[in-house]
Design brief:
Aspartate Aminotransferase, domain 1, Aspartate Aminotransferase, domain 2, single chain, L-allo-threonine aldolase activity, PyrdxlP-dep_Trfase_small, PyrdxlP-dep_Trfase_major
Amino acid sequence: MIDLRSDTVTRPTAAMRQVMAQADVGDDVYGDDPSVNALEAQVAERAGKAAALFLPTGTQANLVALLSHCQRGEEYIVGQKAHNYLYEAGGAAVLGSIQPQPLDAAEDGTLPLDKVIAAIKPDDIHFAPTRLLSLENTHNGKVLPLAYLQQAWQLTRERGLALHIDGARIMNAAVALGVELEAITRYCDSFTLCLSKGLGTPMGSLLCGPAEYIARARRWRKMTGGGMRQIGIMAAAGSYAMEHHVARLQEDHDNARWLEQQLRALDVEIVAPGAQTNILFVRLSDTRAAALGPWMRERGVLLNAGPVTRLITHLDVTRDQLGQVVNLWKAFLAEHA
């Protein structure tokens, strides 16, 4: 099957599996797993942060990040369609009693800073105190500009807020901008990085930030059930990915842009701005949207089809396979004219 549903469907490569099989392990709850310790130190150093924490999932990493920034009854400003507001089952509100203040993102994925300023609550007993600005990079495949991040960072310094980046695909952002990770993460107090998307590991995310903050996050990880034992097998996969799978993200970006060009030639409507990284959105009529998913599945292609269909390239999809998808799309359009 050619699977374009998400980059979470990637499977560990043979080389990654070999590294996992040979990983040196210990009990991570006791701090004794050398592979976990090495991964945390590796990513923290790369990001220019004091410390990092390995967690099982991106959802838990974001939850722990918010719990470590905000107390009960406090507030974080976040995008209306941000993952840690819309797609994580309301965990911050349910488990942390943290109030979200969602804002509509601009077309480029940024949260307009004038709207952020207007949403910051005054020191008044009627309001939940605003403690945190949470950004997402990339946001629906859109890369937040460095100049914007610098402005958001300066704003939070002036207003006494912390700044967190949900960086599930932050390495895609770094590759797209042609910069090192630290060039992005210098403009945040904390960030998360997912290893199981474009980087191709079976599981795991990291939360990075100041040492005191990560110590607090480690306690929250325990309380939310995230203590792990001989997890160095997975941490070794993360270290391998950070060493060998970052630069190759450019291939995924190039493939997404190639797919965009081919679909444009078929008069498929591309949702602006097109493929900045490995994510492409196309717009379909309701009739075609209802038919496309089952039609493609019968022919060996998996899509999350809808009126706006997201297509994601990754290390398990080749250019030749995308060529097959284009040919099938052309046949589909001919049948559903």
